[in-house]
Recover the amino acids of this structure.
């Protein structure tokens, strides 16, 4: 079965690295980080075997069901008692991400965007969990979705939009989380599922590991 056959990315098997020269922004984009054949296999296994669940999040004066599904993995003493145990696939992906970035991570949040109606609103991650100027490494499998960023203070800067393709790694570092917000918009187009893994280093134990309104990507 051919999945997400974007010929411009996969015909040569070429990996590309790109950075972005914008104020307060530290991003490194690694397209083709996971070769297509492997990306297809990870996608199918994660989609089928992950214990996806919905979760509730506060919005203004009410609680709503978030428009995506999630799973949270890590050691219980670091990521909270509700964290799932690392699987062989997730351990291998963490190893590859750490080798590529030279960083260490102790938890991963999996998001499942089932179709174009699933999204994540504008936000930046809560630093009391992951420290000031955190490193967050995101790996995408499945449908290409646009990842948008906007500066919190300097409104003269245009929004940045990055299409995150099947097998892509995006590293967000430096002051990005402090000065920029990011989101995945809804789409009226027909969309296949997208799985996004965000590796991070938790610096304080989470009493409720499924309070994902604190740690979205």
């Amino acid at each position: 079965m051919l999945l997400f056959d974007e010929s411009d990315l996969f015909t040569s098997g070429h990996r590309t690295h790109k950075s972005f020269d914008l104020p307060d922004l530290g991003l490194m984009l690694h397209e083709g980080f996971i070769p297509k054949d492997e990306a297809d296999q990870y996608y199918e296994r994660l989609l089928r075997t992950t214990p996806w669940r919905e979760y509730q999040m506060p919005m203004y004066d009410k609680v709503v069901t978030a428009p995506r599904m999630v799973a949270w993995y890590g050691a219980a003493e670091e990521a909270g008692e509700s964290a799932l145990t690392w699987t062989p696939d997730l351990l291998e992906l963490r190893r590859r991400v750490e080798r590529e970035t030279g960083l260490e991570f102790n938890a991963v949040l999996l998001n499942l965007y089932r179709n174009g109606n699933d999204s994540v609103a504008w936000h930046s991650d809560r630093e009391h969990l992951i420290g000031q100027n955190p490193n967050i490494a995101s790996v995408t499998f499945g449908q290409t979705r646009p990842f948008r960023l906007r500066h919190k203070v300097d409104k003269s800067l245009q929004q940045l939009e990055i299409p995150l393709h099947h097998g892509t790694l995006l590293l967000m570092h430096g002051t990005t989380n402090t000065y920029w917000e990011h989101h995945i918009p809804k789409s009226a187009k027909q969309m296949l599922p997208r799985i996004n893994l965000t590796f991070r280093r938790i610096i304080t134990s989470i009493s409720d590991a499924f309070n994902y309104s604190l740690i979205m990507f």
Observations:
- Helices lie at 7-10, 36-49, 76-79, 88-101, 127-130, 176-179.
- The two ends are 29 Å apart (CA to CA).
- The CA atoms of residues 101 and 175 lie 17 Å apart.
